[in-house]
């Protein structure tokens, strides 16, 4: 264990453990005691999968094993789309037109003046701005949750 911080709060004890370069946060009902075995208590709520994964990763770190990827890891294409959506949102909120946003994000050479109204990048830019607004209005909370198969 490299470094640990322990603080008492009104709801119990909060520990931040830095193990092998990864930060783990642990909450304890009572003050921790060295050389005692601990158990993980997990509520069956909508975050159960993430709690199980966090517990597994902590156990692996404490035992010197590789952590593996986190459950909520996002693909490179998803991260790129989120980045583009936030950039498009910022530009739109600063007063830029969809065409100006598209030229910055995708390059001005890709869009001729004549083709702009029907160009795929116009529709893509509008969708990126809409996605950015959705994130700003609270959609960011869903980033760490798995997508539901039920709609």
Question: How would you sum up this structure, described in words?
Answer:
The chain is α+β, with helices and mostly antiparallel strands and 151 residues long. It has helices spanning 48-62, 76-93, 98-106, 120-136, and strands at residues 3-9, 12-19, 22-28. It has a 3-stranded antiparallel β-sheet, with helices on one face. Strand 2 and strand 3 (22-28) form a beta hairpin. Helix 2 (76-93) runs antiparallel to helix 3, helix 2 crosses helix 4 and helix 3 packs across helix 4. The radius of gyration is 22 Å and the shape is elongated. The two termini are 44 Å apart.
Write the layout of secondary structure elements.
Elements: E1 3-9, E2 12-19, E3 22-28, H1 48-62, H2 76-93, H3 98-106, H4 120-136
Antiparallel strand pairs: 1-2, 2-3
